[in-house]
Amino acid sequence: MRQRKPIVAGNWKMNKTVAEAIDLATAIKRELGDCKDVDIVLCPPFTALKAVSEAITDTHVDLGAQNMHWEKSGAYTGEVSAEMLRELYCHYVILGHSERRAYFGETDEIVNKKTKAALAANLQPIVCIGETLAERESGRMTEVITTQVRGSLADLSPRELVSSIIAYEPVWAIGTGRTASPEQAQEVHALIRSLLRELADDAVAQSVRIQYGGSVKPANARELFGQPDIDGGLIGGAALEARSFIEIVRGAI
Ligand code: PGA
Most buried residue among 56, 109, 153, 193 by CB atoms closer than 10 A? Predict the structure, then answer.
């Protein structure tokens, strides 16, 4: 018996027109609309949120965004707030993805502000962390993960921690076809859970869901999701095609 309900999210990144997004969401809901064993989340670009929200109404498939600003409103050209996402029936938001950290300068401090704002607006944050290849190869993985977990989740109450989802995404595995082995991923997931225990207590640590992300495919999903501390995945490339995403979700059941 699994202790935590698995959660599989598709991060569509900057892909899909509105028409393509509707097609993909419709194909996914046709097969998984009734699925109660896994929380399924689709994260299209902002422009397709409304259309996807309408396509998945009255199903068990849920909606997430890929980013947001921490303020409620104001002079922040190009940004979108948590309340605006809630208005479109988003329940989740991906925060601090490594692409946002690398290309848009997001720090743990920024990710922490966004995480608090998301929780305050009743959005479940999917907080991304992960080390680069250089950091892993120089033996700094533990230090990097520890800093990111403590920084991104700073000052969250036990209740807020339980509402948060963490995605461990080794940067060297994202979009590279190079997946962490189930053992490598499990080692880091166990480390993250021990850090959660330090931030709160064992009950909280055992409740928080930790996804793996980085070149997850139908062929490796089941083995990854079968690890004791891996509670589903954050899927990029393989989430852009209905068949592979559906098979990956089935790997979590
Ligand atoms: P990938 O991306 O599955 O294409 O490696 C994962 C992610 O960036 O969330």
Answer: 153
